[in-house]
Batch of 4 targets.
Target 1
Amino acid sequence: MNTPFKSETDRIDALTKVETQERTTDGWLYVIALAAILAIVAAVSFRADACTRIVYQGNDSLYIVGRSLDWRTPIPTNLYVYPRGMHKLGDNKPGAVEWTSKYGAVYAVGYDGGVTEGMNEKGLSVNGLFCKGTVYGNANTENLPPISLAMFPAWILDLCADTHEAVELLKARNFNIGGATFDGGTVSALHWGITDANGNSAIVEFDKGVITIHEGRDLVAMTNDPQWNDMQAIIAYWEKKGGQHTLPGTVSSPDRCTRAKYFVTNVEKTSDADVGASIARSVVQNASVPYLYSVEGEPNLSSTQWRSLSNLRDKRYYFDVVTNSGLFYIDLNKCDLREGKPVMKIDVAKSQLYVGEANNHLFKTAPFTPMY
C-alpha cells in the first residue's frame, strides 16, 4: 500500500502534531480521545481479523443489520433454517447448557460446525465479530454449565424474542463459554452485536471472564478490537475533527468503525425494504476490505468473504458472497417453522446463480454437527 506513513501509529502521530496546534478551550475532549488512540492503535492496526457490523435505522420500523465477514483463509459458510421445538445441547461436556428452541431461525454456519450469526422469526439478530484479547472465563465461571461458541448465538436466538430478553439471559451468567480453535489453532475470540425488531441494540463483550453489556439505540456500528469503551473514544476524536471532511480511510478496525458509523447515520431514511437493503449493503461495502487486496508487509490482511443483511421488520435474511454475481435472501415468513418440521439448508457454495428470494433452493437436511 502506498502511503506517506510507515504505520497507522505514524499516521496518528502526524495528526496529533496538527491537533496540538489547533486545540481550543474545549480541547480536553481531544486530549482524552488522542490518548486512547495512541495507546490502542499500534495494537489494532492492520490486523487480519476484520469484520464490520452496522444497523440501518429507516422509517416505519425498518431496521436492517448489515455485516461483513473478513478472514485470512476461506471460511465455508452455509445457511440453515431451524424450526421451533428442537432440543439442543450447548456442549458435549457433562452438565452443559441445554434448551428447547422457542423460535425458528436462520443461521449462518461456518465450516458446517458453528453458528457465526443469525436472525430468528421475531426479528432478533445476533452477530459474532472477532475481538482479539477476549477471555470468556475465570475461576468464578469454570464450574458453570458449559456452552460452546459453536452454539452460543443459537442459544440466544432460540430463546429470546428481543434484545432485552437476550441481555437478561446473559446477565444471569449461568454459563461458561468454551470452544474449539479454528484455522490452524486461532482462538475464537469474539464479541457480539444484538439488535431486535424495535431497533434496540446491545454489544456484548468478555474481559477476563467478566461480561460487559452496552445497550442503546445508538449502537449502530461495531468492528473488531479494541473493546467498545476504547472504540468510542476513537470515534469521538474523528467526529470532533469534522466528520465527512476527515473520515479515516484505512482498513484498520477503528477506521472502518468510524466510517461505518458516519455513513449509516447520515444516509437517507426509507421505509422501502428493497431500497433499505441497498443502502445498508452499500454502507457495509464501504467498510469492507477489497477482495484479494494486500498491504506490503501484512500478508495476512483479511479480505471480505461475504456480507449479510438482516431485515428485522420483514424477516428477510440476505447473503452476499463476494465471488458471486448476485444477492439472494431467505424469507423467514415463508419458511415452515412449526415444531417437528425438518431443518432446511442452502448450500452457499452452489449459490453462484442465486438472485432474489431463494426459498425454493432450501432442501431438507440433518442438523449440523457442532464443533464443540
Target 2
Amino acid sequence: MRVLVAGASGAIGRAVVAELVRGGHDVVGLARGQAGADVVTSLGAQPVVADVLDRDGLLRALDGTTADAVVHEATALKKAPTHYRGSGITATNRLRTTGTAHLLEAARLVGATRFVVQSMVFGYGFVDHGPDLVTEDRPFGRARGAKSDAATAAFASAEAQALAAGGIALRYGFVYGQGPASDRIVSLLRRRAFPVPRGGGGSLGWLFVDDAATATRAAVERGRAGQAYNVVDDEPARWGEVFDAMADAAGAHRPPRVPGGLMRLIAPFLADQMIGTSMRVSNAKAGDELGWRPSVPTFRHGMEAGRRAWRTPGSLSSPGPAGSRRTPRS
C-alpha cells in the first residue's frame, strides 16, 4: 500500500514510517519543515512539507499525490507536558480536533480508503478506574468538570471524526523507548529533576515505541473500519517503578519522591496523570482482531532494551537507516 503519514518526523511517527517501510509499503511522510523532511528521507520515505493546521497549504502540497491509507501521528509535544495551558498541549489539542478534520479532507483528496488516528488511554479520563480491566467498551472522552476536560475532549473529537468516516483509532498507552523523549527524561533523571509522587503514583498501561509502530502497521493492514483499539503492553505499572527502572538502566539517579500537593503546584497536568489517574487497560481486542502482541511485554523488558542506548549519550538522537530497528520517539 501507499501510506501517507502525518507527523512522520516526530515522536511515534518516525517509528511508524520505519515499520511501514520494513513491511514493504510505499510511504509519504508529512513534515512541517526541511529538517523534518530530511528525517523522512533518511527513513526511506518520500517527504512532503506541509502544516496539518494549514488546510489550504496542506491540500495544495498534496495535490497530485495518491495514497491508499492515511495515518495521523501529528502532535506538538516536544517534552513531557506539565501545565494545562502549555503551548504543546494547546497545539496538540488543535491537531487532534482541527488537524484531524484537515487530514480527513486530505484523505479524500489523495483517494485513501483507510484512516488511522493516534489516540491515548488518557481519553478514558484522568481518574482512578478501579481494579477492573478497561476495555474499548468503557466510555471515552467523557467531560468530568475538570481541567483535563479539554485534553479528553480532543481525544474524543479525533476519534469521533475518524470513526464516523470508517477510520480506526489506536489508544496508545504511555509511549517510551529509545529516542528523543526518553533521552530527555534520562537527562532530567541524571540531574535529579524528574520527580514522581510519593507512593509512586497510579498504575498505567505502557507501550514501547517499536510496539506502537507494529500496532499501527497492523491497523493499516488489518484493522476493522470504525473500531478503536487499546494498544498497551501486558502489565500495568506505577510511574515510580517505571522511572526507577529507567534510571537504573541509564545509570542515573532514581527520581526523587515529592508530596502530591507540591507536585500539583509545580506540574499540574503531569500530576493529574501521575496521581489522579490509575487504570488497568486490556489489549485483548488488538490481539484478537489485529493479530498484534507487544514484543516488549513489560516495562522491565523495555528498560533492558533501552539500557545500551541510554548509557551511550546521543546514540539515538537521530534516526537510523531505513530497515533499522532503532526507531526514535520524541
Target 3
Amino acid sequence: MTIEHTALGAGSTRVIERSGSQDVDLFELPTDEIQEVYKESGALIFRGFDVSDPTRMHSFAEKFSTRFNRDRLRPTVAGSDGYVQAVLEGQGFVEPHAEQANSPFRPDALWFCCQTPSKDGGETLLWDGVRVWERLDEDLRELFETRRIRFFQKYEEDKWQLFLGGDATLEDLRNTLDALDGVSYFLHDDRSIYLEYVVSAVVTTKYGNHRSFANSLMTERENTLGDAMALEDGTTISDADIGRINEVMMGVTEEIPWQPGDLAFIDNSRFLHGRNPYNDPGRRIFSSLSFLNF
C-alpha cells in the first residue's frame, strides 16, 4: 500500500484520510510509510480512522515511541499508565509554543485525538518553526542565533516525578540534571526543585536538520515565573520584538478543524502549537507526549 495524503492548508501538514484504497484500520497502515511522510511534513492528521478513544491513540503512538512523557498540569486518563491526558486547561487563546521547550524534558512528538470537537472555535493551531525562522527579520535571526533564552521553573516532588518516574529518588534527579546542558538548580527541603534552563530559541529539527524557531518564548512571558524570563545575560526581550515575531507567526498559521475521531501526530522539534478560544464545555481533546524510535 502507498499512503495517500493531502495538504491541510498552505503549509506542510498532511492529512491521511480513510477512503478508497485506504479504507483500512489505522493499525494496518504501513509504519515505514507513515514515518517517511512524517519526516517530510512534520505534522500528520489521520481522519476517518475513529481514534475517539484516547487509549487507542496511545496504543498507536507506542508503535513509534520508545517512551512517554507527561504534562504536569493535565489530568490523566484511566487505562493509559498515566500517559494519556485530557486537555482541559482554560478556554482562551493559547499562544504558539513547542511542548515543554521551557524545560530539559522536551519530548520529540505530540499526539492529540479528538473525541468531541467544540461547537464554536477550539481549533488546534500549528506554526511551522522552519517557516517562521525563514521569515524573521535578519536582526532577529542574529539575536537568537547568538544569544540564548533563560527559563525558570519550580517543580514540586510529584511534578518532577512525572518526568523521571514515580519511584525516582533525589539522587536520580541530581544525576539526570547534572548530565544536562544549560541546567542549574536548587533543591528545597520539601524536595521541590527550582530550575533555571538556558537554551537556544532556535533548534535543529529531528528530521532534515532544518533550523526551526520552535520554542516557548511566547507562552512563558505570561506564566507565573514569566517576569524572570529573559536572554541569558538578563536582558529582556522587548515588546516590539515580540510583536514582530508574532506578526510572522500569524502569517503562517495552520488550523486543525477537528472532527470526531481525528488523530494528530506533530514533530515537537519543528512545530509550535496553540489553540483558538472556544465556549463549548463539551470539547474533549486528549494528548500524549513521546520520544520516537525512528
Target 4
Amino acid sequence: MNYRLLLPFAAFLVPVILGIIIFQLDSFDPAPYPADQLSRKKPVSAPSRNRRMFHGSEKIGVGRVWGPEDILYDPETGVIYTGCMDGWVKRVTVNESSAADSVVEDWVNTGGRPLGLALGHHGEVIVADAEIGLLNVTGEGKVEVLTDEADGVKFKLTDDVAVAEDGIIYFTDASWKYSLKDSALDILDGRAYGRFLSYDPNTKHTRVLAKDLFFANGVAVSPDQSFVIFCETPLRRCKRLYLKGERKGTVDVFVEDLPGMPDNIRYDGEGHFWIALVTDFTLSWELAQKYPYLRKLMGLTEWYARRQLKDGGVFVVDLEGNPVAHYNDRHSSLVSTAIKIDNYLYCGFVTSNFILRLNLTQNPAVSS
C-alpha cells in the first residue's frame, strides 16, 4: 500500500481530530443567553449620521496615552484626565490650536488598571480601577481604596463610575468572576456576573443596587438627579434606576437595540447622553448569542474574536433615550468613551495610543 497517498488526508484529519479533542476538554462552557433577554429587533437608527468620524479628526498624546479607556474633564482647570494600561492616570492640557502639541503629564499611578473616572465634590478624582476597586485620588495625588467588595463578594472588574450631587458614588463591577484580561470570556460566557452598586462616602457603606447583569458597564446620572443609567454591553442596552418619585428604586430599560455594544456613557450638559460603542452590531454576534457552541469556539480563538471588533463609534440619545445622532467609522474599534467639550468630541479607546478629537462644527452628523 502506498502510504504517501494518505499523507494529504492525514494532514487534514489530524488537526481536525485535535481540534475536536481540545474543544471537548476545554473547561470554558458558555451558557445559552436567556431568550427573553435577547433582542429580536433591528438596531435602532439615528436621524443624523457621520460615518467617517476619523476623517478630519485630530490625535492627542500619540504614544503617551496607551489605552485611554475613559476621559474626565475638569471645567475649572480645563485639564483632561485619562486612565491608561500602565496604571497611570494622566493629565492632559489640550492645545486648542494644535491637538498634537497638547501636554501629557504622568499624574498618579494606581498600581492597577484605571478605567472609569469621575470628579468628586472637593477636587478629588474617583477611579474605577479594574484590578483594585473603587479609589479616591486627592488633588495632591494620594490614593485611597474606598471599597473593593459588596455583600462579601470581591470586585473582579470595577468598570465605570459617576458621582451624584448628593455625593453618592454610583459604579459598576462588570463581573465578579472574570478579570479584565479575561473580559472577553465574560461576554462570551452567557451568564450574568455583573453588578451595579453605590458607595456612600459618609457612611462608607457599599450597596448592591442591581445584580445578575450582563457585563455591567457605563454609568451616568441624569441632570435632575432623578435617575442613573448603567449599560449592559453584550445585550446592547442601557438600563435606568429611578432615584426619586413614585418609581424610586425600580429599574427599566432606558435605551435598547443599540447599533453596537455600549461601553461608557457621558452626559454633555446640553440634554444628551453620549454612548461609546466598542463595536458595531454584527450578524456573527447575533448568531453567537443564540448558540453557545459558537461562543465556545470564539473563546478558544479569542484572537479571531477580537479581530471582529470593528466599526466602533458613538451613539447620542436625549434624556428619554430617543436617538439623536450616530458617529462611527469602519476604521475604528474599541471606542470606550465619548465626551463632548464645547464644540469638540473627545474619544478614548481600550487599546489605542491616542485620544481622538473631532470638531463637531466642521464634521457634524447629517440627516441620513
